[in-house]
Amino acid sequence: MDVVTAQKPQDRLAALLAEDMNAVNTLIRERMASKHAPRIPEVTAHLVEAGGKRLRPMLTLAAARLCGYQGSDHVKLAATVEFIHTATLLHDDVVDESKQRRGRPTANLLWDNQSSVLVGDYLFARSFQLMVETGSLRVLDILANASATIAEGEVLQLTAARDLATTEATYIQIVRGKTAALFSAATEAGAVIASASDEQERALFAYGDALGIAFQIADDLLDYQGESGTIGKNVGDDFREGKLTLPVIKAIAAADAEERAFWQRTIGAGKQEPGDLETALGLLQRHGALEATRRDAVVWAGKARSALEALPDLPVRDMLADLATYVVDRLN
After folding, report:
1. Helix residue ranges, H only, 96-180
2. 39: pLDDT confidence band, cut at 50, 70 and 90?
3. Structural domain contains residue 22
4. Please, are residues 187 and 308 in contact by the beta-carbon 8 Å criterion?
5. pLDDT tens profile 137-156
6. In this structure, are residues 319 and 207 in contact, taking their beta carbons and an 8 Å threshold?
7. What range defines the domain where residue 199 resides?
């Protein structure tokens, strides 16, 4: 296998978009500065410089390139997408009382909850300034809607937490809000700024939506079968936090009375004892919940690839298709 084919799809995409991504990173550093509150760049830099994949801004740049865009506003949109993402991470870590993000201590742990929330607010404000600078009301509409949808998804997750009646449909609705909304906004905004056709806009929205759902399902599955060093958090964190992710929802649906009592105690009531995670893993295996979840992720990745068929046959399209494949291949 040669070096090019051995690279991960996101690395090949990053290499193709390197010049644009450098411009995005420069803009991010400029706009996260604050003359009056030095804590803002401190907190933001901790997360922004933490070695994240920058996947969402890359999707905006890739979509714009795929649709033949020649201007520079896609750089502002990509930075906007990253700021929205970073703001939601800062807020999420406070809500989830997380201690680790991308293998490093979270901002709320290193500073405090107040700093994380307020700096997140600052980044949201910065993102809207950047959107306005593009002069596109359509783009503003797409990204403003996505920001509202993300918040809705998080609140829905909060209200569904520890509720054993949560269905797979509600789970997908949560995922579509908290994760897929920004993926689809990132790709759709790239198409809009490039003045793409309605068909291409719809195709890139559908790609981002399906990719985001596949990505989150895979992430939730890795929480039960990944390795801490690989997933950047502790295995079983979702279980300990009482999150009803797809593997658990599937296991609960197949549970007998004794198993349901276990899930009610550990997830519903949040009363966990030593050995409960191992018991949970055993139940997930017994009912084939992990494999069924993996199959669902594969289906969504397939939908993402299919959506790309309406777009020009260019190398960047192949990379986006490979990215959808990789999202689920990492589960093998």
Report:
1. 107-110, 113-133, 137-160, 168-175
2. confident
3. yes
4. no
5. 999 999 999 999 999 998 99
6. no
7. 7-329
φ/ψ (deg, to 5) at 100: -140, 140
* Residue 164 tokens, joined: 């054993």
Place of tokens 């799809």: 9
CATH of the domain at 258: 1.10.600.10
Q: How far is the C-alpha of 9 from the C-alpha of 4, rounded, in Å?
A: 10
Number of structural domains (the chain) is 1
pTM: predicted TM-score of the whole model, two decimal places? 0.91
- Give exposure, 116-147, as e/b (b: 16+ Cβ within 10 Å): bbbbbebbbebbbebbeebebeebbebbeebb
Is residue 170 included in any domain, yes or no? yes
Cα distance between residue 56 and residue 163, in whole Å? 31
Span 5-24, pLDDT tens digits: 458 888 999 999 999 999 99
Give the DSSP H/E element, type plus range, for residue 202.
helix 198-225
At residue 146, φ and ψ (nearest 5 deg) are -60, -40
Asked if residue 2 is part of any domain, the answer here is: no
Question: Does 1 map to a domain?
Answer: no
Query: The dihedral of CA 9, 13, 16, 19: what is its sign?
Result: negative
Helices (H) and strands (E) in the chain, counts: 19, 2
* Contacts for 316 with CB less than 8 Å, ≥ 6 apart: 13, 16, 62, 65, 66
- Tracing tokens 């997408």 back to the chain, one arrives at 81
Please report how many Cα atoms fall inside a 13 Å half-sphere around the Cα of residue 281, on the Cβ side: 13
Give the pLDDT of residue 1.
Answer: 36
Name 100's bridge partners: 105
pLDDT at 4: 43
Comparing CA positions, the residue from 120, 197, 115 lying closest to residue 151 is 120
Q: Which pair of structure tokens corresponds to residue 173?
A: 């609705």
- Residue 107 confidence class, pLDDT cut points 50, 70, 90: low
Give the span between the Cα atoms of 2 and 221, in whole angstroms: 30
Distance, in Å, from the CA atom of 279 to the CA atom of 273, rounded to the nearest integer, reads 10
